[in-house]
TrEMBL record:
Sequence ranges assigned to domain HTH deoR-type in this UniProt record: 3-58
Gene Ontology terms, MF aspect: DNA-binding transcription factor activity
Name of the protein in its database record: Lactose phosphotransferase system repressor
Purpose: Repressor of the lactose catabolism operon. Galactose-6-phosphate is the inducer.
Keywords: Repressor, Transcription, Transcription regulation
InterPro entries: Carb_Metab_HTH_regulators, DeoR_HTH, WH-like_DNA-bd_sf, WH_DNA-bd_sf
């Protein structure tokens, strides 16, 4: 899965459930936790999610 597709999926999941857990995202997307953290930082910088301790909230 490309970076862009993975980030779209994270935004979609956060939008549906209201929040996402970083560890659960890593398992679901089959990537390292650091990859999820990097994606969440990038998405937060674009105003698409709001990071929390261990995850994020849909924006």
């Amino acid at each position: 899965m490309s970076t862009e597709a993975r980030r779209r999926e994270i935004v979609h999941i956060a939008g549906q459930s209201g929040s996402v857990d970083g560890a659960a995202l890593a398992v679901r997307l089959d990537v390292a936790r650091e990859t999820v953290r990097r994606d969440l930082r990038a998405l937060e910088n674009h105003g698409l999610v709001r990071r929390t301790h261990g995850g994020a909230l849909g924006a």
